[in-house]
Amino acid sequence: MHCIGIDIGSTYTKYCIMDANGIIEELYSEKTPVRQKEYFMQKIQDLRTHYPDAQVISCGYGKRNVSALKNINELTALACGMQYLSPGMDIALDIGGQDTKVIIQNQGALKEFFLNDKCAAGCGMFLINALNLLKMGFKDIELQNGMEPEFMLSSVCAVFAQSEMVELLAQDYHPQVIIRAVVWQILNQAKTLLTKVECDGILLTGGMTKIAGIKSYAERVFGKKVVIPQNAAYLSAIGCAVKYRQCDLL
């Protein structure tokens, strides 16, 4: 019997399809829809045409909009996903679309967590808005092997920072120069959370892990070893599927 883990994030929805032996068969993502209940009702029906025996477990902002066997807290899913992908790592920093969090896990169980203040400048949505303003995509970002940006954004507020970016464009700064400052700003905001835990290294997860060179860039900002396992952006969806198997619901 298959398990399908679904993480409904504020920006993207991630899917993990896992077989009865705990092997991941497929991972993919799509833009989170607007009319979620209607969309996911059809989506689950489509999935079950390919995996008729599948059971579904969900997490994330829209988890209650999925007709699933069970829904769980995203923090629980992250802890399970960490143990599956990187059993040697106990602490993760997750930079999501709307919030940033540090979690501590032990053998796949959530021990403790810390959330950032409600500030868009420390989240993925700030990066997405900046990329839209600069007419860039994730694949266009060049982080230059962890080198500090040529300048730092002066504002820690996403609204004022966006105005600052408009001014920088007017001053003919290259978009690559600006976006490096934006990524640095997001990581620097997240660094505040890491002061709440003692560690030499962290696992980094979230959509930003897809940016080429983000590992060395993050290590420069945090002053710590950063581990980014393969498929780190799907950690919560993977954790959902793992949690289903842990619950012995098969």
Automatic annotation (TrEMBL):
KW Ligase (keyword) present: no
InterPro entries, per database record: ATPase_BadF (IPR002731), ATPase_NBD (IPR043129), CoA_E_activase_dom (IPR008275), Dehydratase_Activator_Redct (IPR051805)
UniProt keyword annotations, A-Z: Iron, Iron-sulfur, Metal-binding
Pfam family, one: BcrAD_BadFG
One example GO MF annotation: iron-sulfur cluster binding
Required cofactor(s): [4Fe-4S] cluster
SUPFAM superfamilies (alphabetical): Actin-like ATPase domain
Domain ATPase BadF/BadG/BcrA/BcrD type: start-end pairs: 4-241
NCBIfam families: CoA_E_activ (TIGR00241)
Protein name: ATPase BadF/BadG/BcrA/BcrD type domain-containing protein
